């Protein structure tokens, strides 16, 4: 992944040069982690470039900000339009889009109320997050020694920058031990999610995934896979998942904007199923990619064309 330093950044309603998109070190966000962001993909389809579930992502952006009493001075429609324009002005036909809102420069102290709320949108090219071969052969992961955020500490439903301090601990630990990713348990010791992905377990032909109350981000890809599975008459159960259910699962996979649908082939060196992408993972993954590449009818109106 590399940035294009010639690209433009949308900032509070106008485009500025990449090099000018900076913040001062005395900004509130630098000291207290006061930021909210989104991660969205734009795909090249047969009918032109389209952003996947743009409005759903931007609704989550606004929801995350509401949780933190951060007033975004733009409407949902304005934010959607700004995302599209950022892709277009940078002449990208495929992109990863990163809207970010943060508390800026005014005064320092925990109370953020006097610090301005600033919004930026970046876009760049980004390939498969867990490696190009991961989508087919799967990844090796471990259960993290770090728990995911406990309820009533840091709100897991908000996609806040600060939550990713926890994600970084999970990711760095996994990588230091030679794994691609870590799966965190929640405070109750049941499964929550990866450092940047939701998780699904296939057992006896059914799909299991933790509920929103188990310290997870309400993933847009997660919701999409639930919809696709239900349309295939695959039963989806949102329930707390004990750790050991991973080891005896038929299949396990991650979902996320960056990770898309990535099979997991082992957890803690225990092989999952046949140790490769299983049939149900393949089935939902294929429908997912077919829709977002425009190869299958977009029944759910997930594609928002530029
Ligand atoms: N959980 C976490 C912690 C994440 O960072 C992400 C990526 N945004 C996800 C789950 C997946 O969410 P989505 O499918 O909306 O990208």
Write the topology of this structure.
Elements (H helix, E strand, L loop, with lengths): L7 E4 L2 E4 L10 H5 L2 E3 L2 E6 L2 E5 L1 H14 L8 H14 L5 E9 L13 E8 L9 H4 L1 E5 L19 H14 L4 E5 L5 E4 L3 E6 L2 E4 L10 H12 L4 E3 L5 H4 L3 E6 L3 E8 L2 E2 L7 H14 L10 E3 L1
Parallel strand pairs: 8-9, 8-15, 12-13
Antiparallel strand pairs: 1-2, 1-7, 3-6, 4-5, 4-6, 5-17, 6-7, 9-10, 11-12, 11-14, 14-15, 15-16
Helix pairs in contact: 2-3, 6-8
The chain binds 4'-deoxy-4'-aminopyridoxal-5'-phosphate.
Protein model, in words:
- The protein has 306 residues and is α+β, with helices and mostly antiparallel strands.
- It has two domains: 8-124, Aminotransferase class 4, branched-chain amino acid transferase, N-terminal domain (D-amino Acid Aminotransferase, Chain A, domain 1), CATH 3.30.470.10; 134-292, Alpha-Beta Barrel (D-amino Acid Aminotransferase, Chain A, domain 2).
- Helix content is 26%, strand content 28%.
- The protein is built from eight helices and 17 strands.
- Strands 8, 9, 10, 11, 12, 13, 14, 15 and 16 form a nine-stranded mixed beta sheet that branches. Strands 1, 2, 3, 4, 5, 6, 7 and 17 form an eight-stranded antiparallel beta sheet that branches.
- Strand 12, helix 6 (220-231) and strand 13 form a beta-alpha-beta unit.
- Helix 6 (220-231) packs across helix 8 (279-292).
- The longest helix is centred in the first third of the chain and has 14 residues, at 54-67.
- The chain is globular and about 55 Å long.
- The protein binds 4'-deoxy-4'-aminopyridoxal-5'-phosphate (PMP).
- 4'-deoxy-4'-aminopyridoxal-5'-phosphate binds next to helix 6 and strand 14.
